[in-house]
Write a structure and sequence with these properties.
2 copies of one chain form a homodimer.
Chain A: H1 6-20, E1 24-27, H2 31-37, E2 49-53, E3 57-62, H3 66-70, E4 77-80, H4 87-96, E5 104-107, H5 113-122, E6 127-130, H6 135-139, H7 144-167, H8 174-187, E7 191-199, E8 220-229, E9 232-233, E10 236-242, H9 249-266, H10 273-286, E11 298-300, E12 307-311, E13 324-327, E14 330-333, E15 337-340, E16 343-348, E17 351-354, E18 363-365
Parallel strand pairs in A: 1-5, 3-4, 5-6, 10-18
Antiparallel strand pairs in A: 1-2, 2-3, 7-8, 8-9, 8-10, 11-12, 13-16, 14-15, 16-17
Helix pairs in contact in A: 7-8, 9-10
């Protein structure tokens, strides 16, 4: 992956800060720091912050990560050792950056709370917002290089899903099924992020913890897998069954498929994200399963597996070209099975591009 | 692993809260929540908090995780859906828990900053501390069952390190070496947490990012690996060399070994943690390598790979039986090599128990 254009990204961030009235943005080691600086140091309990003002920027840096990080960036460091602690280095950083009188500080919403409170306690006059209000807006739309990374990752998750389909048989445990996908990801140099395998009643928990449950003939199985390669994620959900599904399964699958199609049909630039959620939810409600669709329709994806834009009834986002997000309606029937179908799409002027090449049909394993 | 005794842990936490003057403790999905409740729901961007007052407790719970979590706990939930957002459920939770007038709130230092600020913004009259001040104290000493888990995990990391020793040869990349360890961990059902392989000059960065560097004859290699099995971690660092090390290597290794032994000799209940750091650091300083020992001597280990007690000059901790921590002095010679030796010990009345069975000698690979 080519290095992101740091100067350009700092300048876009500062324009967003000016528009929001933000004096200081503070980012922890993670996706936000990576987006701005093109890297982030090892993340642990040692406070590490990228501090960005309207005209300066630099890192509060644990001493033991300074030499390694110096190879990655030209920005100044204020280092601190384990013996010193971070307080004096932070004070010096804020003074040198001219940030001691900041009135509004946007903190990285995903960083450790003690990193954020270390900074906010040092600036008692400042109010706080979140990086999602400034940087988050910039991360919403992916450029051409980022879109290519996401397409490549989707091809790998398609291969992992196909490998599961080929391996599935009664007597395997959920965990053994997950291992099939993880092996494919790792063979491609991708780090598995989640491998949800929810057999029969387990599938009715959207975030089921894949375990020792043994697959049996007649089980329908939720398969929701994703991995990170380079800095970017993948995510896909499909359904499989060992032999014939329960008699009522087909109707429920058709409802969820219709919900996906309704959302895709509504998906174009200028439309509120909430409209997609509403379009899919109405299909499911009209079929009588409204209470069994217990989550939002989707989430953005990029440097993080879940990131804005949120595709929910509560979302205020208006869709724009370059946004990348999931469409993943589900119906969860307690004690019996869950059913979810998930696509990742890139929104273009002319509509959504679905990254997966796999059909959304139930994959029936002959037994 | 048997379920931890929840009622006992809540009662010990409340005693610590009373001693600290803490009215409310708020924990996110992670090790702190796991320690108290014996589980934690899926962690994502949806605010999820275990709220504990002096006489009540319950969860702010994203609706889609409620059914799965209900199988794990009898504590009450205040649930919220993606469409509603968490604000109203949090207000209701604080009212029902009698926490709206809390004066001091201890937030989970490791949870997302937006979880902590959601709560603190809802309690503008409250000051904040951190869970490390109350719960952290309780997690410092491991009970017999926890110690057994840590011994079992150490045996696995010994096996992974031995597998690396057996596999090492010139021409391998750092990443290929790391894969050897990860395969051993996974075969034991352990999830790799870190596999630092730092060849030659790369080893001079304590948190070197394992990469494509090819190992060559004469390289000394830092090997620092750990994994999680069940809820607990492992961590070990050893040194290897492909053929003969540089002529001055042996002296530096002897200094680090002497520093480990000085710390072990000082290690007994009632001694300040800072004394161990000082004992090891003095050995290294006296040998002329003080500036090259750029980090603290060690860190606690348990549900997290790094947790209190911190074994540093700045630590105020007095060592007690049941504490589990690393002793890992290092000397980092820029542009040439790094050298670190790490033991995990359980402190008993009679002194430290070293978990690894592997010698700390340089492992020389014949080439």
């Amino acid at each position: 992956m080519p290095a992101p254009p740091i100067a350009d990204r700092l300048s876009r961030l500062r324009a967003a800060m000016a528009a929001q009235g933000t004096d200081l943005v503070a980012l922890g080691p993670g996706p936000n720091m990576h987006w701005v600086a093109g890297f982030h140091p090892h993340a642990d309990e040692r406070p590490c912050l990228l501090l960005v003002t309207r005209d300066k920027a630099g890192f509060l840096m644990p001493a033991l990560n300074a030499a390694g990080s110096r190879e990655q960036t030209d920005l100044p460091f204020w280092t601190w050792t384990d013996a010193e602690g971070p307080d004096a280095a932070l004070q010096q950083a804020l003074a040198d950056l001219g940030a001691t009188t900041a009135r509004r500080v946007d903190v990285d919403e995903a960083m450790r709370s003690d990193f954020a409170l270390l900074l906010l306690d040092a600036l008692p006059q400042a109010g706080h917002g979140f990086a999602r209000d400034t940087l988050g807006e910039l991360r919403l739309c992916k450029d051409a290089a980022e879109q290519d990374e996401l397409r490549r990752n989707a091809a790998i998750s398609d291969e992992a899903m196909s490998a599961i389909f080929a391996a599935l048989r009664p007597g395997m445990t959920e965990e053994e099924v997950a291992t099939v996908a993880r092996d494919v990801f790792r063979n491609h140099g991708a780090e598995p992020l989640f491998t949800i395998v929810g057999a029969a009643a387990n599938g009715a928990f959207p975030h089921h913890h894949t375990g020792d449950t043994v697959l049996r003939t007649g089980d329908v199985i939720v398969l929701d897998i994703g991995a990170r390669k380079g800095a970017f994620s993948s995510d896909i959900t499909r359904m499989a069954c060992l032999g014939e599904p329960p008699p009522d399964y087909g109707r429920v699958h058709a409802v969820v498929e219709a919900a996906v199609e309704a959302a895709l049909a509504a998906c174009r630039p200028g439309v509120p994200a909430s409209t997609l959620d509403r379009a899919a939810r109405r299909v499911i409600e009209d079929a009588g399963f409204g209470p069994q669709f217990v989550h939002r329709l989707g989430h953005g994806m990029g440097l993080e597996g879940h990131e804005p834009p949120w595709i929910s009834e509560a979302s205020g986002t208006i869709l724009r070209p370059g946004m990348v997000f999931s469409i993943e309606p589900g119906i969860y029937i307690e004690g019996r099975f869950g059913l979810r179908l998930e696509e990742i799409v890139i929104l273009h002027e002319e509509g959504p591009e679905i990254l997966s090449r796999l059909p959304r049909d139930l994959h029936v394993v002959p037994v």
